[in-house]
Amino acid sequence: MSNEIVPFVDMQRMATSIARSGLFGVRTPDQALALMLVSQAEGRHPALAARDYDIIQNRPAKRAEAMLRDFLAAGGSVLWHELTDTVAKAKFSHPQGGTVTIEWDMARAKRAGLDGKEGYRKYPRQMLRSRVVSEGVRTVFPAATSGFYVPEEVRDMAPEPSPTVTIDSTAEELDQFAAEAGDMPRDLRAEGRVAALGGVAAFREFWSGLSAGERAGLERDLPEFERAAKAADAPLVQEEPGAVEP
Length: 246
Hints:
It is a single chain. With about 250 residues, this protein is of the alpha+beta class. The chain is about 50% helix and about 15% strand. It has 3 domains: about 1-60 and about 160-185, no CATH class; about 65-155, no CATH class; about 185-235, no CATH class. The strands form 2 sheets. The protein has a 3-stranded antiparallel β-sheet. A two-stranded antiparallel ribbon has the order 1-2. A hairpin with a 2-residue loop joins strand 1 and strand 2. The longest helix is centred in the middle third of the chain and has 17 residues, at about 125-140.
């Protein structure tokens, strides 16, 4: 975890960049900034909010991978008993919350009215796994959820009323955020981190827009950016029962 406090004005600039990118389900700078503040409050660099959180149907959500990673980092442990296209079952343990075994199968998904949804038809194992992670972590160590549900759960909730946002008003809001950030020098390192989280194509677009002098100033950080961009494009590792994500 990082103890570095990013100034609010720098977060405004990053929020504007994230909103303009159209990535991560974030539509407005306010949404991006809110998630970045949560990320910083939890000791992470604000740009990592784009990696760990989503906005689904106007609701914030924390990705299952981030939830499980925080759970393990806080001393929790997970033992997968079964992980297939029909059932996901795991035992979650934490020194402060005890032990619980959570199971989600397609029969339970059907009772909840979820079996007909596209995600469960195309990716049943991943959907069941996310349900198990969210329920297990929330039961024995809820702090690792950050108070959110996983995107797979949020998609099945009733949508929040949509704020009055149009393309024109969003553009005006972005311009206002940019103006409020003032004429301070750009934080190219922070912008590079945000772009890398969007994958190789997004980072190449960012890099191509820099001057030769700006590129030279980021040369030392380029390997880190390249690793992050490639990792963002990499497909999720297909775990076997008994395996736990790092």
